[in-house]
């Protein structure tokens, strides 16, 4: 059997703002990528933090194969079970209670949050349903000197039972699908302590590691923690640090989960929105002092070994 020779793809990155986001043209994510294109695409994600590909046609297998060019994949989620024959993918279906309308970095409540995420738009509402991303590296760089010096020394506790979880709790009383998601989120609590400022393992950039799973500042009283987290979080999500994407069915978003936050805008009423996500395993976040993040509660080892437990054949 002869090896398949892959023709190089001409990749074009069209920036969406001066600092964050780009549309990638000339890449078919449903076909195998040559090494040069894969390297260019990774470089584009690291540079622009989040990139978008229009008009893609993906199966479970092709989304997994594409995502694996960024590294070893995790299982779909550390708490929620994936579909039996799709162990490496997490489906977010608004008609099954999934919202994600809270600023967050994915899964920071485990000691190794994902490095990258790949999200495929399957069913998109006729109006609304955009997603926003915030550049946590640009936010760190633009902090006032005094606040940056303070952030450099902080450690933050992240939990699966958090303000993010509260978006489901509020609606649970009147929506059983949302109630089921909330019960799942709090059924198995994970907690991890991370540096407030992490050093990116590839670019060396410093970014603020916060978001909706951040619950308190280690060593500070509750009220002081909440006040300080609010100040830092509001700085991350200033409009100058954000980009907003209007989805079409077949769109693919790839983002650097080590340097961004995102927010799925829930402004589409009873319409249906379905997106499918794969996540690339990441390293333990490390602060500027060299101290790594640590797990406090919960064992996420099964989540990290997702790629070694594939059963979709």
UniProtKB/TrEMBL annotation:
InterPro entries attached to this UniProt entry: AtsK-like (IPR051323), TauD-like_sf (IPR042098), TauD/TfdA-like (IPR003819)
PANTHER family listed in its UniProt record: ALPHA-KETOGLUTARATE-DEPENDENT SULFATE ESTER DIOXYGENASE (PTHR30468:SF5), ALPHA-KETOGLUTARATE-DEPENDENT SULFONATE DIOXYGENASE (PTHR30468)
UniProt superkingdom: Bacteria
GO molecular function term, any single one: dioxygenase activity
Residue stretches making up the TauD/TfdA-like domain: 14-279
Protein family per UniProt: Belongs to the TfdA dioxygenase family.
Highest classification ranks of the organism: Bacteria, Bacillati, Actinomycetota, Actinomycetes, Kitasatosporales
SUPFAM superfamilies in the record: Clavaminate synthase-like
Name of the molecule in the record: TauD/TfdA family dioxygenase
Pfam families: TauD
Keyword terms: Dioxygenase, Iron, Metal-binding, Oxidoreductase
Cofactor(s) essential for the protein: Fe(2+)
First and last residue of the signal peptide: none
Keyword Oxidoreductase in annotation: yes
């Amino acid at each position: 059997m002869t090896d398949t020779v892959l023709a190089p793809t001409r990749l074009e990155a069209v920036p969406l703002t001066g600092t964050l986001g780009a549309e990638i043209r000339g890449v078919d994510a449903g076909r195998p990528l040559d090494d040069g294109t894969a390297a260019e695409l990774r470089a584009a994600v690291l540079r622009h933090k989040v990139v978008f590909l229009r008009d893609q046609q993906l199966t479970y297998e092709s989304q997994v194969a594409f995502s694996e060019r960024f590294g070893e994949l995790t299982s779909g989620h550390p708490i929620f079970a994936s579909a039996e024959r799709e162990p490496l993918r997490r489906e977010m279906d608004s008609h099954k209670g999934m919202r994600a309308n809270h600023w967050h970095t994915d899964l920071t409540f485990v000691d190794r949050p994902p490095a990258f995420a790949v999200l495929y738009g399957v069913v998109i509402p006729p109006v609304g349903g955009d997603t926003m991303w915030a550049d946590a590296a640009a936010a760190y760089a633009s902090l006032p000197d005094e606040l940056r010096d303070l952030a450099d020394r902080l450690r933050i506790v992240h939990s699966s039972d958090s303000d993010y979880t509260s978006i489901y709790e509020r609606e649970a009383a009147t929506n059983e699908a949302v109630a089921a998601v909330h019960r799942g989120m709090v059924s198995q609590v994970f907690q991890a302590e991370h540096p407030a400022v992490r050093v990116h393992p590839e670019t060396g950039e410093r970014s603020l590691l916060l978001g909706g799973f951040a619950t308190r500042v280690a060593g500070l009283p509750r009220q002081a923690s909440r006040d300080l987290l609010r100040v830092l979080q509001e700085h991350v999500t200033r409009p100058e640090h954000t980009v907003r994407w209007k989805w079409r069915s077949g769109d693919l978003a790839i983002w650097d989960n080590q340097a961004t936050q995102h927010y799925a805008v829930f402004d589409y009423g009873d319409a249906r929105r379905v997106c499918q996500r794969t996540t690339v395993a990441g390293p333990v976040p490390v602060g500027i002092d060299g101290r790594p993040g640590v797990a406090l509660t919960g064992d996420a080892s099964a989540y990290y070994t997702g790629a070694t437990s594939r059963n979709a054949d």
